Structure formats: C-alpha cells, structure tokens
Amino acid sequence: MLIIYIMDKINKIAVIGLGYVGLPLALLAEEKKFDVIGIDASEGRIDQLKKRISPIDDKDASVRLKKTKIKFSTDFTLVRDVDIAIICVPTPVHEDKKPDLSIVESATISTAKHLRENALLIIESTINPGVCDELLIPIIEEQTKLKVGKNLHFAHCPERINPGDQKWHVGNINRVVGANSEEALDLAYAFYSQLIDGEIKKMASLKEAEAVKIVENSFRDINIAFVNELAMSFSKLGINVVNVINGAATKPFAFMPHFPGIGVGGHCIPVDPYYLIEYAHNNGFEHRFMSLAREINENMPAYCIELVETELEKQKLGDLKGKKVTVLGLSYKPNVGDMRESPATKTIKILKEKGAEVTTFDPYFVDKSTAKSLDEALRSAEVVVLATAHKEFIDAGENIINSGAKIVMDGRNALYSQAKNINNKVYLGVGVTS
Ligand SMILES: NC(=O)c1ccc[n+]([C@@H]2O[C@H](COP(=O)([O-])OP(=O)(O)OC[C@H]3O[C@@H](n4cnc5c(N)ncnc54)[C@H](O)[C@@H]3O)[C@@H](O)[C@H]2O)c1
Q1: How many Å lie between the centroid of ligand 1 and the Cα of residue 232?
Q2: Are strands 35-39 and 324-328 parallel, antiparallel or unpaired?
Q3: What is residue 418's predicted lDDT score, i.e. its pLDDT?
Q4: CB of 384 closer than 6 angstroms to any ligand 1 atom
Q5: Distances, alpha carbon 405 to alpha carbons 350, 383, 384, in Å
Q6: Among 43, 50, 139, 338, which one is most buried in terms of CB atoms within 10 A?
Q7: Residue 283 contacts by C-beta under 8 Å, 6 or more apart in sequence?
Q8: What is the per-residue pLDDT across 282-335, written as a single tens digit (0 to 9) for each?
Q9: How far is Cα 387 from Cα 401, in angstroms, rounded to an integer?
C-alpha cells in the first residue's frame, strides 16, 4: 500500500552523471515508465548522448539509447520540478590516494539548490561512511535554503553495477538504502522497489549504507591480495596456486575462490578501500589489513615484471633495456573496453622506465599509439606480457605462446592450459609454472 501511495507521487526523476552507473540507471528508469532527465557536466558527453552515441562500453545501454526519449542536458536548473534526483558522479582518489570528494560535493550542491521542496536527493556514488552526514548534508543546508529531513529528503543507495556482467545488471542487483529520516527511507525504498527486480534492504543509517559498499569492495581487494601473496609464496615453494585454490573451492562452504594476477583495476576495488582507510585514520584508527591489501595488489605489476627480469637473466639475455616488449590488454578486466585504474597502465609505465620498447594491443582500444592487430603486436616481440584475459587472446593463445617471443608472462594465468600442453619453457604465470 505504502509503495502504491508513494509511487503515485513519483513521476519525474533526474539522473546526474551519465557514465557507467548513471546512464544504465536513467535508461532503466525510463523503461519503468518514469519521466527521466539526464544531466551531465560534460558538454561533450551530452552531445554524444543527444546523437544517441553511448559514451560507455555497455551493449544494452547502446541499444536502449537508440530509442530513448530522455532529455539530456548540462543544465542543472532542469531538476527544479523532479521528484527524485540521483547523483552518480565519480569519486576517485588523488595522486596520493586520498579520497577526492570534490566532484560529488559540487554535483550535490548544483543539484540541491534547484530542487523543489520535499524532493528526494539520492547519492549513488561510492562514498565512505560519514560523507553524507558530515560533508554533504551540512553543505547542502549551508548553500541552499533547504533543511535535510524537513523540506528536502535525502538518501544513499550505493550502486553495485558490474559492467560487462551478463547475469547481474542494474535491473536485478539487490540494493541497500540508508537515509536520515523515515520518510526519505520509505521514499527511496519504494522507488528502488519499483525500479529493481531484487531485494531492497533498508539500513539503519546513512553511515551503514555508505559502509556496505566500501566493505564489499574491500572484501574483494583483501581476498585478491591474499591469493596474490600466496602466488608469490607458492612460486618459491614449487606449488601451483591455482590448483590449490581450485582444490580448496571443492569445500562446499566457507571458501570463496579468488585468483591471483597482475593487478586489480577499475573504478571501484583499487579506489574504494582508500576512502575507509582515510576516514578511519582521521578518526583515530589505522586499517592495517586493508592498507596491506592495497600495497600487495598495487605491487603486482612490478612483481610480474621482476619475474620477466629474472627469466631474462636466467636465459643470459640481459635486462629489459632495449627489449621489444608487447603488452596484450589495456582494459582492467576481460571483454570490456574500460581502462580505468588498469594494471596494464602501470605495467607499461614500469617497462618503459626500465628502457623496454613497448608495443601494446587491445582489441577494445586500437588507435595510432597501438598495434592494429594481434599479429602485428606479436611480430617482433621478444617478451609478451598478457595483462587482460580478453577472449580474443585466449582464443589466440597458441599463437601467443608460439610467437617468436622468448618469454610469455601471462599476468592472468589465462593461457596456462595451452602453455602446459605444448610444454613451453618460457611461459611464466602468476603462481603457476608450466
Ligand atoms: N563503474 C562501475 O563499475 C561502478 C560500480 C559501482 C559504483 N560505481 C561508483 O559510481 C560512481 C560513478 O561512477 P561511474 O563509473 O559511473 O563514473 P563515470 O566516470 O563512468 O561517469 C561519471 C559521469 O559523471 C559526469 N560528471 C563529472 N562531474 C560531474 C558533475 N560535477 N556534475 C554532473 N556530472 C558530472 C562525468 O562527465 C561522467 O559522465 C562512482 O562513485 C563509482 O565509484 C561505479
């Protein structure tokens, strides 16, 4: 009953920030019969969207975009008559890994000052506990004439989208919502229940909802760091870590397999833990475990290159200076054209610093600075580093392994079975040996 009552009051929504999170959300809301406005600070992005060109690598969004009636604009005043405004702008870290909240802060202000009384403002961007209560609500109240919890409703619903995932998408991933008033919580709950075919869980506070997202991604970062550490240890002990993980995964409870690799990328996992690390630090607690996980995962590109250097030495081939090294894969994860925080970038940087002549190839990013095909990339390579397990590379695994390269460093253990079959002696994996 409450949902029907509330849904009668919600017709028009605005999504602010039309990237990997905001655009699929806006398109889903339109499909669910909401009247949607899409706002973005980037004129280039709005121009693209007006031409129905998707700025993100998301097949479903590209298809829906062709038929959408959503009004796209850079004009924040358009939020003045919406019932709900949802902020989906980036929350990156600075060079020194400290959280950069300036974008979410400015987008929140730009939006809040145009909202009508009693509208609901939702933050979907990933933020650490305390950002809503201690940063956003005070600045909204200071810079607008609105009182959060009285004449402006406010909620947080962290997005969990996993770009490229065919099974779990914006329309069916469970959500958590938090708010600082019963009414805002009910409104947000009713809205997401209408939108999403999944469970919507009410959290007791904004802080809890904020913490959920950081905990999820830190959990993954820590588990990956654990298996990366095992990979480094087991390679000295002559144990194949992937076989061990697959063995442990036969336990039907209390074990969740994670696999080692050249590094962790994307907008979330290598970024979000720093938000909690910093917030806890500022409040007198040091997250040693989370910080160590970040350190281990950040070091994986360097570790993989060290393996190559050791092998070069073993083969009496000198060091990386002047060596022709081909890096396969620029995306941070397979089968997606997204380079954000990709470990490939760091790998390339280290190789160049060591004097290697680096060629790159990724089927998702072909331009003047890259090879145009896998064949071209492999042609004169002395060392190949596989940084992303794109399907194209796995399908061409034998070509990669049998190329003229003296060393194939498989940073994703993606070609292991193919390397094993042909018993290639220069194949290096992460915690696996051929
Ligand atoms: N990408 C993911 O897989 C993912 C998953 C879950 C959560 N998140 C979180 O969601 C948030 C958004 O991430 P994303 O991946 O969609 O980012 P994105 O970079 O793909 O898109 C962000 C959009 O916001 C726009 N923007 C920047 N500043 C703005 C401003 N001041 N006002 C209006 N628009 C502005 C940008 O132009 C861009 O279009 C982040 O907090 C991220 O951590 C991302």
Answers
A1: 34
A2: unpaired
A3: 87
A4: no
A5: 19, 5, 6
A6: 338
A7: none
A8: 999 999 999 999 999 999 999 999 999 999 999 999 999 999 999 999 999 999
A9: 14
pTM of the entire predicted model: 0.94
Q: What's the maximum distance between 2 C-alpha atoms anywhere in the chain?
A: 76
Mean pLDDT of the 202-206 span: 98
Tokens of 274: 């720093």
Q: Delineate the domains of the chain, giving CATH numbers in brackets.
A: 2-204 (3.40.50.720), 221-428 (3.40.50.720)
Pocket residue to mutate for ligand 1, from 25, 39, 125, 159, most atoms within 8 A of Cβ: 159
Return d(Cα 264, Cα 299) in angstroms, integer.
Answer: 10
- For residue 73, is pLDDT > 80? yes
Substitution candidate for ligand 1 out of 49, 210, 267, 333 with most atoms within 8 A of CB: 267
